[in-house]
Structures
1.
Amino acid sequence: MKEKKSTMEELEKELTFKKENFFEVADEKKVKEAFNYADDYKKYLDNSKTEREAVKTSIEYAEKHGFTEYKFGDKIKKGDKKYLNNRGKNLILFKIGKNDLAKDGIRILASHIDSPRLDIKQNPLYEDSGMAYLKTHYYGGIKKYQWTAIPLALHGVVVLENGKSVEVRIGEREDEPVFYVDDLLPHLSREQYTKPVSTAIDGETLNVLVGGRAFKDKEVKEKVKFSVLKAINEQYGMKEADFMSAELCAVPAYNAKDVGFDRALIGGYGHDDKVCSYPALTAICNAETDDRTIMVVLADKEEIGSEGNTGMQCGIFSDLIDVISLSFGVHSAVVRAKSKCLSADVTAGYDPNFASVYEKRNSSLVSCGTSICKFTGSGGKGGSSDASAEFVGYVRNLLDKNGVNWQTAELGKVDAGGGGTVAKYIAKLNIDTVDIGVPVISMHAPYEVISKGDLYSTYEAFLAFVK
């Protein structure tokens, strides 16, 4: 009887699927590797709060691993390790292998390096009631109330009237000031409390407080505004008109930190999607293979639809595939058809505090590994590329063979909402593509949370895919 029960238990284990917690199945050596990897990732995250900073930080990392800059028109040969810097906001790295492109295609990892934030408007500076503010326009999907009453830093670039480009990064160091968006005190919030959370804070009230010192001169009309203008002129050479040729944004002035007594989690700004960008970057740099041609795309503008000439819809991605193909006498249509892509983007980690919007069986559980998301979209899979069963089968078998902890996921209940990634733009080029990435708690908040186990599992998955 006992023997029969044991046999049934073994059969049940063989036939059923159960998500496994990384920290339960990984040995001490792997857990230590995951924690060490997470320490490096936190540094990357802190240095890459905007897409411009992410490109700069990624180039520095790639160059340390033998990558050199490529520009259209340069010759491409086997063994090359190159990066294409698109306007300082979009980076494509590629490594040319020995294999025949016509047979093997390109292994592509595509993620995005932009994150939700508050963009400073083009004519932003004003004074009111003894305080100076900058007007903003929020970028990407945010809960507006989450961006009030927290310390903010200003990041970006200003092109001065003389054409000189000046980098701005203020509010990160201990000796620097921070910035702030006001909120209404609870004593006067009776009306605000009656509003839906989506309208309790109006977008036009997300004004960044930047000054409060009146300039001592009777001839000056707007004394606080002038104080701010004088300060930024002395520090950056800016005049008020220079805001019109600037890309400035307010981001949380927080550094990434371990979360929890056991330090298994990481809190930080911009996990979406740098928590997938970093594993993609490190995978192409650390892949010990000369056979396969590999490409990593770190794209801009995903949070607003992958638009513009630095987003995933820009033709530069397919142009580069065309050039690589032509360099080896292969038609790019053949190369694309043989290529495979992991759209490296985060998934919504199941949150038991808000269980009503999740379908738990098909949600990604924190610390249960990297998450394959076969389809995204909303309301009947609208806007999704919906990967084929064959390609999902290929990916799951690959991960199993390489001992990667993985699970599957979707973005909440069918009618609860939805979202998208860059996957559909790559799939349109006739490239097999599926989403895979790290589960995130509080996605798009100023401070998101991920698991070190999921981060490392994603790195292992990408390394297995490209090697």
2.
Amino acid sequence: MKTPVWIFSLLLTLSTAGYAQTTSNNDYIVALVNSEPITHAELENQIRQLVDSRGPQSAPLPAAAELRAAVLERMIVERAQLQMARETGVRVDTAQVDQAEANIAAQNQLDLVQLRANLEKRGTTQAAFRQQLRDQLLINRLQERELEARIKISDAEVEAALAARKEAAKDPHNQEINLGHLFLALAENPSAAAVAQAQQQAQKILDRLKSGDSFESLVQEFSAAERSNAGQLGLRRADRYPPLFVNASQNLAVGAVSQWVRSDAGLHLLKVLERRVNGLPDTQVQHHARHILLRPDASLTQEQAIKQLAAVRERILTGATSFEAQARAISQDGSAPQGGDLGWAAPGLFVSEFEQVLMRLREKEIAEPLVSRFGVHLIELLERRNVELTPAQLRERERNLLRAKRAEEVFEPWVRDVRGRAFVEIRDPG
């Protein structure tokens, strides 16, 4: 379950501003939450953290007194949740904190050594940073447990939502399509011979499609229309396409190719590349990748593994060796005998930092070495494709959407309840 963003901006803030610690001989308590103090220094740090993390497009901040009161209230709510998490047995182990720290580094395109160096420059110890991460994870776990128990989505609700989405798809205003277009031009009032010649060429193209030629390559070879980007017309609302195109493609699965259709201008062959209803795709992006994995240990540090894979990457790029050969020779993953080939993978199969790199890569591109919880990876994206979601995947997506909506409805009352059950004494209202 996604943590509501207004409660905790810690991860975002840490990645952009750094958590600064200040101490003062004149520090004092500004509030108590079940006898646990919040100090003036802590409050000022949180305010500074919020101000420093703001971007140029951020909304104006409220007046100083209002901002101070709002930040203090947020800290009280956070403290009450942390106390509840500890009292009810929520635990976060060291490995989870390690992964959160690695994720922050990856989001900022840093390794752990660079991240820690940046934090030190901002006056933050590694211990303080990791404690902040641990607190964030504790609250996330608490919210997941408490809110999940309050959310029940029945199969009947899921089926009703799916039926409503299918009904909405009938309205062109609710449906977006991206079509590939192969066009054979005909002159105005063409002769029978010209039409026959175009039809023969059209049949030749269909035969080559059946033989395994890609639609995209045939666009490059034959299309009289725009050939850049493999003839893609772009994701747009269905009512912005010619009705002829919509009618020819509306019953096709994603990835399927229509029959030839004729307009006054010529013959058109269409491929459904993507379809969305109310902004939601009925496809998923899958990646075909390969990788080389080195696992740091007593004989190989993480930094050494990164340098080794960076050198391997340079040798591959210069043609001195191949990715497959290096994967078979040095990779410590089970995919090594296959040259590091991981096959086609749906979203969620790999850890988030691995998938984030895949999403950024172009086909045939090799990324810089990546650190994950499993070790150090060298990743190459071979291919990317859109695949239509199965009925089971569509149902699961609809269930998750309903769950997220219900979570928003129950979250605010739950937070108010946690806050209301805590004994809070504000000593310095500002």
3.
Amino acid sequence: MLSKKFYINIIIRILLILFTCLSIIPIAIKDERLFTIASLILLVIIQIFLLLKYINRFNSEVSVFFSALKTNDASFAFHDKSFPYISEKVRNDIAFVRDQLFSITELKEIQKSYYKTVIESTQTGIITTTEDGEIDLINNCALDLLNINKITNIKALEDQHPNFYQILHKSSAGTEKLIMIKGKSKAIPLSIRISEFKQKKKNFKLISFQNIQSELEEKEVESWHKLIRVLTHEINNTVSPITSLANSIEKLYKNTSNNTISKEEISDKIIETTHEGLHIISQRGEGLMEFVNNYRNISSLKKMDFERFKVAELFYNLELLMKNNLSEKNIKLSIDIKPIDLELNADKKYIEQIFINLLKNSIEAVNANHGKINLKGFKNRDNKVFLEIGDNGVGISEEILDQIFIPFFTTKDNGSGIGLSLAQQIMRLHGGNISVQSETDIDTVFTLKF
């Protein structure tokens, strides 16, 4: 590691010290030369001091080198004139390591600058906090959405945005919420997602959120268009026959000259036909009133009455309730709950109603003697409860898959089209959602996420 020049210098200095020490011996025999002896001893001490100083220069230069690494001083190098003790090969190896370290540091700075630019440029608010709520990172978008200039702890949000603070303070990883917060001029809908990560043995919480006003408006318009199409279809189906029948009845009371007939010309046949027509008009009118009342039921759900109950109790009650329907078509019902004591905090009667409707749909969809319906309950990694109902029936075609949750949309001749839309409303009031996956003639799975 050390150069030959360094070793030669050390050997010469040691030999000089040894020579000086040996020269003291013959002089020390003669007591009258005390001054000379003292001088030689002093010379030995000076030589030892210079030797130690020479050796310490190596330690000093190494210390300076590592200090340069700590402070990222790329200008430092081992020069022959300032530090000739290290061999050229070792000097080159150290210079290579130094360059590599500085390259890594430079790369980290570039990456840091890159990620900072990305984080600051995104239209998503990003906040990272420690376990005690201290804010480690917050981007400009987050500050703008929250209408604040600076913040160091999420506790500061408690007064200005209490709902937002409660979610950040109490929610765990995997939480997804949609809330309204106070904006600069109006309320802002925010979609919030929370995750967790660990860095340097410290746990951090990552909160990302964004203004979804435009997305909601777009979805709202789209939903209105779909709803209007369904409403128009249903109203036309009711009003068109009524209009046609009314025109037909009106023609019964006209003669060939298109004039109103007299009382004497009204026959029993006309009266009978008129009575039948009015009866049909009355039935269609009642059907339209029922349609309106169904819409009212969807839009005016009562507040949920939450209670804690076991999923096994829910599923086995459903099995008992639908036993006859299942037996009639020889359908096999399986129940899978993990863990078996899985519990759910929800409105039991509404969740039960959802599954009754879904079970009826599955029973209608599967073939006799080959029908299978599966009820599943489980938790995911984020400790969220999922309930599923699947069947091996005819499935749902891709063309209508995105329309089945629209109020009054139905493919059944005698269907009302409110079952799935009602289920969706109920799940929203639970803070969850209902989704479906289906392959025609293979399987259909409805998933309730709480």
